[in-house]
Amino acid sequence: MRTSNSSFHGPLPLMLLLLSIIAATIFFTASSSELTVVHGAYPRSQQSDLIISFNGSDILETRAPGNPVVAPASEEVCAKAWNKGYTLMCWMQNPQMAGAQAFSPFTRFQQLADWGWTSQGGQAIHIGGNWGTYADPGLMALLGHPMYGQSTGHQAVIYHTQARGPVVVGGRQVTYPATMGNYDNVFIADKGVIIAASNWGPASKLAEGIPGWDHNTNRLPDLRQLSDIWWLLWEQVCSQQRVRPSELRYIVSKDTVNEETNAIFARILQMYWPNEEGIARGIAPKWPGKRITKEMDGFPTLVGTPSVWGAAYMLIQRAGTMGRKEIKSITVWNENEHVQRFYQPNIMIEVGDV
Question: Which residues form the signal peptide (predicted)?
Answer without folding.
Answer: 1-24
